[in-house]
What does this fold into?
Amino acid sequence: MNLLIKNGRVVDPTNGVDAVQDIHVAAGRIERLGRALQAPAGTTVIDATGKVVCPGFIDIHVHLREPGYEYKETVASGTRAAAAGGFTAVCCMANTFPVNDNRAVTDYILAKAKVEGVVRVYPIGAVTRGLEGTQLAELAEQAEAGCVAFSDDGRCVMNAELYRRAMEYVLPFGTPVISHAEDDHLAHAGVMNEGPVSTELGLIGQPTATEEVMVARDIILAELTGCHLHIAHISTAGAVRLVRDAKARGVHVTCEVTPHHLVLTDEAVRNYDPNTKMAPPLRGKRDVEALREALTDGTIDCVATDHAPHELSEKEDEFAEAAYGIVGLETAVPLLLDQLVRPGVLDVGTLVARMSVAPARLLNLPGGSLAIGTPADITLLDLEQTWRVNPTAFRSRSRNTPFGGWTGTGAPWMTIVGGVPTP
It folds into this structure.
């Protein structure tokens, strides 16, 4: 399929481009860039006047739930949600059933993605067998099968000696270990952030130290082993400080932040809405300010949704008993454009870098560039498009979002994967 994307504002941080240009796509790759390009007969022309044209967004933290939990999400529904949200690729976590801790499950996910997926899918393998934290999974086998990183996300590997061995084991593969930094003992029974709001609501809280203790431990282990450590869903000012200091020392540590931790505080929990229950929990105002500053200055490398679908019954219970997590693929980009870009917290180029260039670099994935010859994975944004979050219209199978009814301006306009506009 040949495409000619005309008159768009091309924003490509990798190549230092921010200008109105045309992009010619042929055979799934970027063929030419320039002004007033002409294309062969039969080329599909897309008028992108007034739109931002950038490298396809990549979400490195998604729960597609398949195999095992198809009632929450499938590869088909999850990748359609991703495409609707402006993402051309997703990396899916290992907490499926059975757990993705061996080649057979990895092969299954990749086969499903090839047949039913509409964006690129990259599996993340488990660090330990069954996510039980007691024995290492078949890391070499998973890497050979196509896993791009390793994580027990959803659970913390509490055994420091085991985690050290995992970090040493993955060194030859060049893949990062992704840390779910949550001390099980400090987190015990806590359902939200510990602070004035939890006290007023009568809910058991988790102190920020729950995260910071494990971030500190994992940084020390990364420094010991030389492994690339990636901190998932960083949420506290203290954790940001630890990462910033470690980077200054030359430790190979990176991190991500979720949109919900950038735009919500624990004040959102006051109405006991189970859709505001997540792990890590929503934090205080000072933490949100620190996260925004760190995303701007590059201490936080990228944005990832931690898209965590749940069926309605799992979120209908009392707050303390409800499941953790929210969906995010279809709300992430609109929220960031409205809440960060429009107020000037983040410029468009930085947002594009944090959602395309950085994720590709962190996990050694294709993408993150519009250079000639690269795969034509392209996200188009309309900075003036108004929106209202309507969970019933989600492509995802699940509706668990705290943003239902929110309105704003700025949204994905089109998603192109391998030169093909996605449905």
